[in-house]
Amino acid sequence: xxxxxxxxxxxxxxxxxEDRLTRMITIADRMGIGRFCVYGGMTWTQDPPPExxxxxxxxxxxxxxxxxxxxxxxxxxxxxxxxxxxxxxxRCVAIGPMVGVKLWIAHRCSAPELDPIVKRAAELKAVIYQxxxxxxxxxxxxxxxxxxxxxxxxxxxxxxxxxxHTGGDWERGLRGLRVIxxxxxxxxDLAGSDPVAGYTEMAVRELGAExxxxxxxxxxxxxxxxxxxxxxxxxxxxxxNLILGENLKRLLTPIFKIKGIKV
Length: 263
Prior knowledge:
The chain is of the alpha/beta class. It is built from nine helices and eight strands.
């Protein structure tokens, strides 16, 4: 069982959302990937106004509607617009078929504006994914680091949070994996970084395999390169199975039960 935590409709050929997800599934079938979590629309906007992130979510709804047996949607929100984000959370998750929340780089996640969004998502049992990165060239003004995420995690210790990309700089100093280690409600996402040796092994060593999640960031990254991080890692088979799908299924099970989704 391979479930991909992290794919996008960008970077994939196709004139419509359905076309792009069709193309992605064709490639994933060759790699043995069974299910996807799909974020965002057919284009990128770092700080989208409400009408734009609603459009992106409509595109994801359109795509996953054709492939409900293969794809799960995460609603894309902008915490600069709290009321609009809460309304979109209701539309896409409480009422609609989506099962998670995607937060990108519009607003740092340590900000108090995140709190009502996290609280409502937790009530709905929606999985929360937050992009994080440490950039050598400097982060975007609203771009979060793992340091921001653990501030949010400390305020919501009972809410599972996914540290997107594990901060990019997952190894150096006390960054990435080590900064999230004390916070048991924070999970590491392997997606997006280069498939360098030792990444997955360190994640398992620092956090335990139960807190590590496989994802690709496709179409920005290839399925093959990101799978190589896990299949090439010197870890037990039981740990590999947890990372490739069992952990994500466990995190999604509460909202699956609410929505009557059978997998």
